[in-house]
Design a protein that fits this description.
Mean pLDDT: 84
Largest sheet: 5 strands, antiparallel
Low-confidence stretches: 161-165
Number of domains: 3
Strand order of the largest sheet: 4-3-7-6-5
Helix content: 40-55%
Number of strands: 13
């Protein structure tokens, strides 16, 4: 019964029995061997030998083959078919495997089994047909099968339960989304946290490229090269899209999975959803840099932009202008109609001023009714004069708020870098003085 048991072992090893349920497949596997075993036990006739004789070399006994018996040919047919089936599925398993360790296992097992089969046929079948000089030696050579099996178990961790089970247990235990990719970026495994994050089933994700779920729909090749060169990639931010079309901001770390037996077997990715964190950060940044009432840049952000404009002048000799703006008549509106009307008036004026400036310019509210314009890339003052004239024209028309007619004007002063200063304070001070001078003369 060694032959069907060995074949059964190879079928299990090559995972051919994984999807087979019930006992019906045991019948063809063990049926013929059972019949041959009963024939041997219940009769005095050997399946292989017709008669045993002393070998002429004096080294032991040999036999004359029972070639005239149908049982003899059934026995040898069983050996060839069963061993052939076992080798076929083992080689096919190795060929289709993505794991170098399994490929090496399949090759080693097939070579060992093939060599032992050739030795067995040669010493126990062919030699007895030719000469009685040498006794059958397969049982002596079978010791190499045992040593070969021990070597493969130790060398390739054959039948090692820990290797097969532990990664799956760990994968499902970790609460963070985890993806296991092969060397081509194909998703081979995910845990439930990943499916919950992206709202996909396993059948919709496994076997697909991980980049299919990116908003960009492609890998960053520079990052990929870095990953395989350095074996890790930490804190990488990118956007993914779930099954509903929602964009999810992700920060992830990746490491190359590598073993002594398999070499590089793939990539492990640990994902974190930072969508809420980024939304909060964006809101905090807006609160820190934008005026709450008008949504224009505030003093802090304007100073930052002004310092960058000065740096750009030093590097590229690029002139710019700063315009300090103060609303005329706003205090009267506040005192007459109240702060609610005044606030709405500031919002309306801010919208009018922002609609006049160029895309590359910055209009900010410093506080109260004071605004400031950063006019970048000043090539001639004519363009700036035109923008200021359009601002004044926008404020000529009265503004109606809650059935209240409100009128404001504006006074402004201009300073130019580098003629009027090289620091934010110098430029603002010069523009402020010129604005008050204009307000004094026009008032």
């Amino acid at each position: 019964m060694f032959c069907p048991l060995a074949t059964h072992f190879f079928l299990v090893l090559s995972e051919k029995t994984k999807n087979i349920h019930g006992i019906h497949w045991y019948i063809p596997l063990y049926g013929l061997p059972t019949i041959l075993l009963l024939k041997t036990l219940l009769t005095n006739e050997s399946l292989v030998a017709k008669v045993f004789v002393q070998s002429t070399s004096g080294l032991g006994w040999t036999y004359e083959l029972n070639t005239g018996s149908v049982w003899f040919w059934l026995y040898w047919l069983m050996l060839v078919v069963y061993i052939g089936v076992a080798l076929f599925f083992t080689l096919r398993w190795g060929k289709n495997s993505q794991r170098p360790r399994f490929i090496k296992q399949a090759k080693s097992i097939s070579i060992l089994a093939g060599v032992m089969m050739l030795i067995g046929i040669g010493t126990d079948f062919i030699l007895p047909l030719i000469t009685p000089f040498i006794p059958p030696l397969f049982h002596f050579f079978s010791i190499f099968w045992g040593f070969g099996g021990i070597y493969m178990i130790r060398r390739y961790k054959l039948m090692d339960v820990n290797i097969a089970v532990t990664p799956d247990i760990i994968l499902e235990t970790v609460m963070d989304p985890i993806v296991l990719l092969d060397n081509k970026g194909i998703i081979r495994k995910c845990n439930q946290a990943t499916f919950d994050l992206l709202k996909y089933d396993a059948s919709e994700m496994l076997g697909r490229r991980f980049s299919d779920f990116f908003k960009a729909q492609k890998y960053n090749l520079q990052r990929t090269d870095f990953l395989f060169k350095n074996k890790f990639l930490r804190n990488i931010e990118f956007d993914m899209v779930d099954s509903t079309g929602k964009v999810i901001s992700i920060i992830a770390s990746f490491s190359v999975a590598e073993t002594e037996l398999d070499g590089i077997v793939g990539v492990v990715g640990n994902l974190h959803d930072i969508t809420g964190y980024k939304a909060m950060s964006k809101e905090l940044e807006k609160m820190a840099n934008y005026d709450k009432l008008t949504n224009l840049p505030n003093r802090r952000m304007f100073y930052n932009k002004l310092e960058k404009a000065i740096e750009k002048y030093h590097k590229h000799d690029q002139q710019f202008a700063l315009v300090f703006i103060d609303l005329d008549g706003f205090k009267v509106i506040n005192d007459t109609f109240g702060h609610d009307i005044g606030d709405q008036m500031l919002m309306k004026v801010s919208s009018l001023l922002a609609g006049v400036v160029r895309r590359q310019d910055v209009i900010a509210r410093l506080g109260g009714d004071e605004f400031v314009l950063l006019f970048s890339r000043l090539q001639n003052k004519t363009e700036l004069d035109g923008i200021m004239q359009r601002m004044q024209e926008k404020l000529v028309k009265p503004i109606v708020i809650n059935n209240k007619i409100c009128r404001v004007g504006m006074s402004f002063g201009i300073s130019i870098c580098p003629e009027d200063g090289m620091t934010p304070d110098e430029l603002l001070k010069t523009a402020d003085l010129r604005m008050y001078r204009e307000k004094k003369y026009s008032g």
